[in-house]
From TrEMBL:
Gene3D superfamilies, sorted: BRCT domain, Ribonuclease H-like superfamily/Ribonuclease H
A cellular-component GO term for this protein: cytosol
PANTHER family assigned: DNA POLYMERASE III SUBUNIT EPSILON, EXONUCLEASE
Pfam (any one): RNase_T
Full protein name: BRCT domain-containing protein
Lineage, top ranks: Bacteria, Pseudomonadati, Bacteroidota, Cytophagia, Cytophagales
Domain BRCT: residue ranges: 225-304
Known partners and oligomeric status: DNA polymerase III contains a core (composed of alpha, epsilon and theta chains) that associates with a tau subunit. This core dimerizes to form the POLIII' complex. PolIII' associates with the gamma complex (composed of gamma, delta, delta', psi and chi chains) and with the beta chain to form the complete DNA polymerase III complex.
Length: 304
């Protein structure tokens, strides 16, 4: 097995609340198998914003297997393997938290992150969301369906290997100056930049630059992008945003039926926060148990 692409969906703000898992198996640079499981999450409840993202309901998973039961079916396929995810810090933290919640031993795996790799590649894109890369490579994506996400993650990793004439996930990771992350019984090492510099030839081939692509993050397209994520929601923006213009985000929320608030109250549905979020808002949000979504997480949700 060359590597396995993985994607989780979660039911609520608790990182261990996996409600779906998709796995795509790659061997000899080809997808050879796929696997999808709905999961009865722990704790068993759905936050509205998560449900809006992936569309999974309590009724769909009420009689589904719990994570420990699903894990018993897949653990031997995963143990000792190389894995990859798009935004791996999220998916592998879900795995760790879910395993810990059921007091299950960690597998021995190494992993890479296609999101971080593509940020180094230099493609002429405004962002490297899975949906953006799927459009770039003309791939079919049912975003935030765990199986579809894992398939596309595997496909874009294979596409990049083909573009740079690389064989294997570890060679791809090394080529762009990263070091594989790892999970084991003895500890966890995050996917990160290695000490060596990215080689000078690690610049995207000209053939890639010639692909036709329409930026979702083009301002006009962004403002006209439709979502149900904010409809009838009372939302607060707090902190400084790095990827989205704050005024454009306010317009976007208004156009899609959301209502902005200036102060946190029991009527607030959620807070979108950037760097240096005001401590008073944060404390009151914790006190009132109001969901707080980072700018990066919100951007990811827009494509779900």
């Amino acid at each position: 097995m060359d590597f396995i692409a993985i994607d989780f969906e979660t039911a609520n703000r608790c990182r261990e609340s996996a409600c779906a898992i998709g796995l795509t198996y790659v061997e000899n640079m080809k997808i050879v198998d796929q696997e999808y499981h709905l999961i009865k999450p722990t704790p068993f409840y759905f936050d509205a914003i998560n449900q809006c993202v992936h569309g999974i309901t309590e009724a769909q998973v009420e009689d589904a297997a719990t994570f420990d039961q699903v894990w018993s079916r897949i653990k031997d396929k995963i143990h000792g393997k190389q894995m990859v995810a798009h935004n791996a810090s999220f998916d592998f933290s879900v795995l760790r938290y879910a395993l810990s919640a059921y007091q299950l031993p960690f597998p021995e795996i190494t992993y890479g992150c296609t999101l971080q790799i593509f940020r180094k590649v230099g493609l002429p894109l405004k962002n490297y969301k899975l949906s953006s890369l799927a459009r770039y490579y003309d791939l079919k994506l049912d975003h935030h369906h765990a199986l579809s996400d894992s398939v596309v993650c595997a496909q874009i990793a294979l596409a990049l290997m083909n573009d740079f004439q690389l064989s294997g996930l570890s060679n791809l990771v090394d080529h762009f100056g990263f070091k594989m992350g790892s999970i084991s019984q003895t500890g966890v090492t995050p996917f990160m930049h290695s000490s060596k510099h990215m080689p000078a030839n690690a610049v995207f081939p000209k053939s890639l630059a010639n692909r036709n692509f329409t930026y979702l993050n083009d301002r006009t397209l962004f403002l006209n992008h439709k979502t149900n994520l904010v409809v009838d929601r009372k939302i607060i923006l707090s902190g400084s945003f790095q990827q989205l213009d704050r005024d454009d985000l306010a317009i976007y929320i208004h156009r899609n039926g959301g209502k902005l608030q200036t102060s946190v109250s029991s009527k607030t549905d959620f807070i979108i926060f950037g760097k240096n979020m005001g401590p008073s808002k944060k404390n009151k949000a914790h006190l009132l148990n109001i969901p707080m979504i980072s700018e990066e997480a919100f951007i990811k949700m827009l494509d779900r």
